[in-house]
Amino acid sequence: MNHSKHLGLYVQAGMAIYIASLVSACTTADPTVSSKAYRGVISLDAVRFGFTEDTAKSANLTFVADPKVVAPFSQYLSRPYDNQGGQYMIDYYDHKPISLHVIYADKPISKEDALIKLKALLPQNAPAERKVKEFEVWGKNKDRGESRIYGEDFKALLIFADKEATKVKMISVYAQYKPNNQQKGKSTATAPLSQKNAGENQDKKD
After folding, report:
1. Domain ranges of the chain
2. Which of 50, 78, 174, 183 is the most exposed place for a label (fewest CB within 10 A)?
3. pTM for this structure?
4. What percentage of the chain exceeds 90 in pLDDT?
């Protein structure tokens, strides 16, 4: 199995979803995510949304920067996989975290396991889930997906590997913002306006 080929496809899918569904502003690092690398290594279990770029850089035996991604964006891929075969991908804009993905390219996991994983990826102080919505991923495969909104701050996506929506091939967590607004209580940086109606076909209102 060509892991690089599979990963490349899902990296592209992840970035398409990012462009489509979110942001016009980026978050600062989550203060609850304070893990540090030890001799270039950090446990994937310690990685949540808000993981700082400095930590990703210092964990150079666990994460590697993708040289094809150009400033002000940066992207890091995990060298190891989690215990279910998932590879981590973290995206930053101007050194601030904007999205976190776990990709199960070779062996999708059950939706039940994906929801457990999602809980571990969200910041510890994430608001309660307030809305769940199904959608269809933009592209020739027409994959099914499910979005989950947490307060006004975070959005998560599950991308399914089957039409029955029982197996998950990618879990993503993003910052959720209105155009040019800032998250309450935190300083944020302005990012390029997102392109509407690309990546996922959803109603305009969540």
Report:
1. 3-182
2. 183
3. 0.73
4. 60
